[in-house]
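Hi all, a correction to my earlier message: I attached the wrong file for Histidine--tRNA ligase. Here's the right sequence:
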Amino acid sequence: MTINAPRGTNDILPPDSFKWQYLEEKAKEICRKYNYKEIRTPIFESTDLFIRGIGESTDIVEKEMYTFKDKGGRSITLRPEGTAPVVRSFIENKLYGKALPFKFFYSGPMFRYERPQAGRYRQFHQFGVEVLGSDNPLVDVEIIKLGIDFLKEVGLSDFFVEINSVGCKECRPPYLEKLKNYFSEVNQELCGDCKRRIETNPLRVLDCKVESCQEIIKDAPKITDNLCDKCKDDFEKVKNGLNTLKIEYREVPTLVRGLDYYTNTAFEIKSDELGSQDAIFAGGRYNGLIEEIGDRDIPGVGFALGLERLEILLEGKELDIESGIDIYIVTIGESAEREGFKYLNQLRESGISADKDYFGRSVKSQMKDADRKNSNYTIILGNEELESGQATLRNMKSGEEFSVVLSELSEKVSDLLDN
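and the right structure:
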């Protein structure tokens, strides 16, 4: 019986893996410019972390988490998102005692039990950033700009920004009461999930994608009409910051995101090319999360970007990806194969990417293999070349040829590559 990859997962094979490396390196470059440092957290965490952090009534916790008991009887969950683990690490390692804010970025696999579809898998990959320790609304603008810079750096331009404020622990409770009263009056017209959410978390109703619910949501009380003075002021500062950087945006009063920990700014950067799952990256402020997980009232803000969705948008686009090798050594006969193997390793030790044939194939077949491996140069070694100590180096792109002394092969290839 054939064993296949689990449903909702996939293998990333060459040449696609080159594209992933390209995206990850571009993300790191952008984060270096913005002074964000990498953090790596475990792939699995205590289940309580996500129940307390994400929210017990969210779809993620209720329906989508991969949760199991380990051999010690502890409840463990494969991480469904990256923010709660970063906050847990921040608290556990007492980073709050150092100079704030802390600026982190991460990249890695996440896990959610969902119906697999384009851009949404059960194992998926996220690039995200988190800033812990600053309540300044300009930080919200900074991370939006960081994400936009990343999208532009990899060649995207067809996207748009949506923003909202979801209030704070002072102004949200009375707003939730208004929402609850409004939805209770139209209870019979809502879907089953929304009927339940009226009691558990009415804000989640605004996030419903069912068409009949969407019609009702349009006339629901707007949170931006119910913000406290500080939340109003912070939201204006976010909009002013976006205007200063000439970032166009749309205000969407029903944008609440799918996680309970969000406060104040919420945002999504979307593309019409992605269909119903149209968010490329999204996030917002979560000023109460650190206090919920730990015991300190420290503000935070961040976003997460789905790399699979980004891959969909990049299909057919020309990317500056190096997927070949510098030189391929073609050998004729046993002596040449032995000597060629020696030169191969000398080249690699000099920092040059190199390969050769290991099947004893004909020269023609080896040249075809060099083509498949997208080699910049080839060199043919036979008895004649070994006796003379010289060989011909061929540029596979231009056809130009160079005579090279074998003892100086690494230096010659390095010079050609530099030029």
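Sorry for the mix-up. The domain at 325-418 is CATH 3.40.50.800 (Rossmann fold).
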